[in-house]
Amino acid sequence: MTEALEIDPFNSNRFMYGTGATLYGSTNLTTWDVSNTSQITIKVLAPGIEETAVQELISPPSGANLLSALGDIGGFRHNDLNVVPSVGFGSPRGTNTSIDFAELSSSYIVRVGNGDTANCEKSIAISSDGGTTWSSPTGAPSGLTGGGSVAVAATGGGKIVWSPQGVGVFYTTGGGKSWTASTGIPAGARVASDRVNANKFYGFKSGVFYISTDGGKTFTATAATGLPVNGPSRFKAVAGREGDIWLAGGVDGDVYGLWHSTNSGASFVKLANVEEADNIGFGKAATGQTYPALYAAAQVSGIRGLFRSIDAGQTWVRINDDQHQWGRAGEVALTGDPRIFGRVYVGTNGRGIFYGDGQ
Fold it and tell me: What is the model's pTM?
């Protein structure tokens, strides 16, 4: 994984090399010249450089304002946004692909990832204290090859729907002690939970939206049409509003944009004022508004960027500028803060997590 190694031409004691993880190096390289058994000290030399590939972000209504699921290194509970967390998540320590919390019992959090089977690591972990400590359930669907996506019932209580890679969609009512295959939904579907009704879960794949009203046991395809068939898609349900769902996704040259449903996915309306959208997140409502603030990685009026709407998508205001685009920022991770109006958390692929505060 070493892409480059360089010795400082002005200081022979200093060298650095880069990997897919970070920038390593030493400041006592010439110690090697002393003897064949001399050892140098190698450590991370990357203060101020962030290479983390962010997979998903959540901002619960209580506890830490931010928890992250990251590529390669698992993720963190961010108790202080201005300080790098000293301790990351435990197993699964590899790439964590999805994280969710129980909306009405937000200390209950579940995350999934690409577990390291060689070291007997599980691919799922559960926390009952807001992500401070984690435990691995005793069971997992057999044959899985990756974390996929996970959804937690609104009330928690061990009710989870999991769509791991390599196999189908599964549900548990006992916190992962055992798993049963869901029916009516294809393998690889992205899953999410309703944020009010603990028995209601949703799924989406290849332009078809699915709903379960029995805790994930059975799914049924809804009659919704016009949704993106190709390209990545993300969807989320709104807190405090049963059946209120936003879906972003698509690909250039095909169906692409932002859709809204208020009837649990039975039908969706495409927003005419959003030309393209890759992700959608929710934050605290603005003063005088009753609907949560919307945050989108999107294209509006021909301009690519990050946008906010305080009126349920009727109007949008860009909240970044051309110097702060970070590639396709927000495509995989984007959420507002339910406690602080104007705060948004943005995940990037290789630049870590950014957050912004606005009025």
Answer: 0.90
